[in-house]
């Protein structure tokens, strides 16, 4: 994976650089007009926010039940990316909503549960940073709660009455809107994979340093 | 007697609460249905462009800045950790 990093970094930089031109070529939406184009960055951020929660939860389960310390590094990396992509989602969403709905925020199930997941990631990272000994297992338990929130967030727009567009919007997108969306999604996914890999590497190197200090103390 | 009293109380409560529930039901019925598909058009309505452009520009600008700051932060932390690791490993040799 380390050898693939330069390739991924180059490709993601090129695709993200091309994204504004691709989005500019997309047509306007009939009711929302220009502001609907926030969608091309908002949707990939939101999906990767949920993917980060899933990775963090699965890695934490492997760490807790499989006793594999390396998985904990992946969990921390995914949590940090979850916080980043969650922030992107929760900032771009209200900027879109202010124009489309007339308000920055509504306490509907999709928005509230997304904010809750963002808060779980924040709490997880604060716990890992300042929690002291034992915070790894406590954090892993918290990550499982975060993962349990994911299906709830996804289906919330279909189950409850909400202002947020439903999940049927993406599968029914016309081709001229679908191409820029999936182009941006691919670019964001590559950025996500690259950053996840680099962040996990950072955590694994920290673990190596800790092991070396322990070995020095014992010697 | 107690059952009759309870039944009467419930009926009274329902009668009292019913007018209060009517506006709630009306508000709920007035809510527009959630959007289930996006329909493309060629031109944006005039006068709508400037405020939307501010929102769109802020959203994209924020995404770019946040990603760049995070990449810089990871690179800085990774450099520091790898330098420390190299130092420790050279000390052990």
Topology of this protein?
The complex is a heterodimer of chains A (219) and B (93).
Chain A: H1 5-25, E1 28-29, H2 39-66, H3 69-100, H4 109-130, H5 135-159, H6 175-218
Chain B: H1 2-30, E1 40-41, H2 49-92
What's the overall geometry of chain B? Answer: elongated
Quickly give the structural class of chain A.
Answer: mainly alpha
Q: How far is the first residue's CA from the last residue's CA of chain A?
A: 34 Å
Largest interface: A-B, 54 and 42 residues
What is the number of E strands of chain B? 1
The gyration radius over C-alpha positions of chain B equals 32 Å
The fraction of residues assigned to DSSP E strands of chain B is: under 5%
Describe the fold and architecture.
- Chain A has six helices and one strand.
- Chain A is mainly alpha-helical.
- Chain A has one domain.
- Chain B has about 90 residues and is mainly alpha-helical.
- Chain B has one domain.
- Chain B contains two helices and one strand; from the N terminus they run H-E-H.
- The relative contact order of chain B is 0.04.
- The mean pLDDT of chain B is about 75.
- At the A-B interface, strand 1, helix 2, helix 3 and helix 6 of A face strand 1 and helix 2 of B.
List the keywords.
heterodimer, A: 219 residues, mainly alpha, 6 helices, globular, B: 93 residues, elongated
Quick structural gist:
With 219 residues, chain A is mainly alpha-helical. Chain A has 6 helices and 1 strand; from the N terminus they run H-E-H-H-H-H-H.
């Amino acid at each position: 994976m380390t050898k693939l990093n330069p390739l991924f970094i180059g490709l993601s930089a090129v695709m993200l650089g091309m994204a504004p031109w691709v989005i500019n070529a997309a047509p306007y939406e009939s009711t929302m007009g220009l502001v609907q184009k926030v969608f091309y960055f908002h949707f990939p951020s939101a999906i990767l926010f949920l993917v980060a929660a899933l990775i963090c939860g699965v890695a934490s389960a492997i760490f807790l039940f499989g006793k594999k310390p390396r998985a904990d590094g992946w969990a921390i990396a995914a949590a940090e990316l979850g916080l980043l992509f969650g922030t992107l989602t929760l900032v771009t969403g209200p900027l879109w909503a202010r124009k489309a709905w007339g308000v920055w925020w509504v306490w509907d199930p999709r928005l509230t549960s997304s904010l809750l997941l963002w808060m779980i990631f924040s709490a997880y990272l604060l716990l890992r940073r300042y929690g002291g000994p034992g915070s790894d297992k406590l954090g892993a338990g918290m990550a499982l709660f975060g993962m349990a929130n994911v299906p709830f967030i996804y289906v919330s727009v279909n189950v409850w009455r909400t202002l947020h567009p439903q999940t049927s919007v993406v599968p029914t997108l016309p081709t001229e809107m679908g191409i820029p969306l999936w182009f941006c999604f691919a670019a964001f996914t590559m950025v996500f994979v690259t950053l996840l890999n680099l962040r996990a590497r950072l955590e694994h190197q920290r673990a190596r340093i800790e092991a070396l200090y322990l070995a020095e103390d014992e010697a | 007697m107690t059952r009759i009293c309870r039944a009467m109380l419930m009926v009274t409560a329902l009668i009292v609460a019913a007018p209060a529930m009517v506006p709630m039901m009306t508000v709920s019925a007035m809510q527009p249905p959630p959007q289930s598909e996006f329909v493309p058009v060629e031109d944006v309505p005039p006068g709508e462009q400037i405020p939307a452009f501010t929102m769109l520009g802020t959203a994209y600008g924020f995404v770019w800045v946040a990603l760049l700051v995070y990449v810089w932060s990871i690179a800085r932390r990774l450099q520091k950790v790898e330098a420390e690791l190299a130092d420790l490993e050279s000390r052990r040799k």
